Amino acid sequence: MIAIIDYDAGNIKSVAKALEYLGEVPVVTRGKEILRKADKVILPGVGSFGDAMHKLHEYGLVEVIKEIIENKTPFLGICLGLQLLFESSEESPGVKGLGILKGKIVRFSEENNLKIPHIGWNSLSYPKKGTLFEGIAENSYVYFVHSYYLQAEEDVVVATSEYGNLIHASVEKDNLFACQFHPEKSSEVGLAILRNFIAYERRD
């Protein structure tokens, strides 16, 4: 069973629909025991870093998420769900992220005269190819919607992209995966990424 964490963030339904299209029956829940028993867990999200962390604390999900990841349950963060895994974000000064991975979320520089938020299709490069990208060619295009991007401080980056700045677009560590882009909105490439996550077997 794949559980999708419901913490009132945007884009949860889109992720559920993509999984259903692939033949899965995802459960959208904030039930702690359901999340603990899930075979795989997804943390999607569109919205504010600070608001999201407030909701995770309000629903008692912070420790549950940490427990799930510590127990090596395959876990996928998407967009805001990637950002929350890190320590902090310039979007919400003083708000601590989950801190599961080391790094920070920073705002795009306006010096490059690029539109912010970054909305659209960008290609991926692989500094080291991760599990989610098996069978997916380098320079494949995926869909982004964000004003802030990751600067990871540890060797977990498996995909990057360029939008005025180098974007750490996807990370992987053990059974933990995350994407800044939206696989559920990235056509066949995105569906292939989700298939790879569905097919992934946990490694203890």
Helix-strand layout with pairing:
Blueprint: E1 2-5, H1 12-21, E2 27-29, H2 32-37, E3 40-43, H3 49-58, H4 62-70, E4 75-78, H5 80-83, E5 88-89, E6 103-107, E7 118-123, E8 141-146, E9 148-152, E10 157-163, E11 165-173, E12 176-179, H6 187-199
Parallel strand pairs: 1-2, 1-3, 3-4, 4-12, 5-6
Antiparallel strand pairs: 6-9, 7-8, 10-11, 11-12
C-alpha Rg (nearest Å) = 16 Å
State the domain count.
1
Which parts are unreliable, with pLDDT below 50 for 5 consecutive residues or more? none
Number of helices: 6
Average pLDDT: 94
What structural category characterises the helix and strand content? alpha/beta
Helix content estimate? 25-40%
What is the CATH architecture annotation?
A: 3-Layer(aba) Sandwich
| CATH class label | Alpha Beta
- Largest sheet composition: 7 strands, mixed
Strand/helix succession: EHEHEHHEHEEEEEEEEH
Strand residue content: 25-35%
Q: How many beta-strand segments?
A: 12
Measured distance between first and last alpha carbons: 18 Å
What fold name goes in the CATH topology slot? Answer: Rossmann fold
Order of strands, main sheet, comes to: 2-1-3-4-12-11-10
Write a concise keyword list for the protein shown above.
single chain; 204 residues; alpha/beta; 7-stranded mixed β-sheet; 3-stranded mixed β-sheet; globular
